[in-house]
Amino acid sequence: MNWVLRASLTGLLIVASPLPVWAIDPVVLTIKDHKFTPDRVTVPAGERFRIEVLNKDDTVEEFESTDMKLEKIIVGGGKITLNAGPLKPGEYKFFGEYHQEQAFGTIVAVAP
């Protein structure tokens, strides 16, 4: 775990606290024509990661994953960032709440 030292302005107090460690660069997903691209991504199991979703449609969408217990609305033309993991090895489905028949994908967590 990474640690950071923080000192007070007087220099009398030093506290060590853990910083979150992120496994990889963010997973970047794009919504266009109510579809996710890419619709399948791989991440390392057991590590935290970020998901960025860019909505290139003019309409609102909601990124949702019951498998990962994540959901967040993305306005048309907007961008969101979600923190995810750590995940056990396996497949985790995600979908667009408002266009489930078209907007869906899978995140695959693989063991090292």
Textual characterization of the structure:
The chain is mainly beta and 112 residues long. Helix content is 0%, strand content 56%.
The best one-word shape is: globular
The pLDDT mean sits at 86
Order of helices and strands: EEEEEEEEEEE
**Extended strand count:** 11
Poorly predicted runs:
1-9, 12-17
Determine the N-to-C terminus distance: 18 Å
Helix content: under 10%
Strand order of the largest sheet: 5-11-10-7-8
Largest sheet: 5 strands, mixed
How much beta, percentage-wise?
A: over 45%
Structural class: mainly beta
Rg calculated over all Cα atoms: 17 Å
Task: Produce the secondary structure layout.
Layout: E1 2-7, E2 14-19, E3 27-32, E4 35-37, E5 40-44, E6 49-55, E7 61-65, E8 70-74, E9 79-84, E10 90-96, E11 104-110
Parallel strand pairs: 3-6, 5-11
Antiparallel strand pairs: 1-2, 3-4, 6-9, 7-8, 7-10, 10-11
Distinctive features:
four-stranded mixed β-sheet, 112 residues, five-stranded mixed β-sheet, mainly beta, 11 strands
Structure described in brief:
This protein has strands at residues 2-7, 14-19, 27-32, 35-37, 40-44, 49-55, 61-65, 70-74, 79-84, 90-96, 104-110. With 112 residues, it is mainly beta. The strands form three sheets. It has a five-stranded mixed β-sheet, with no helix packed on it. Strands 4-3-6-9 form a four-stranded mixed β-sheet, with no helix packed on it.
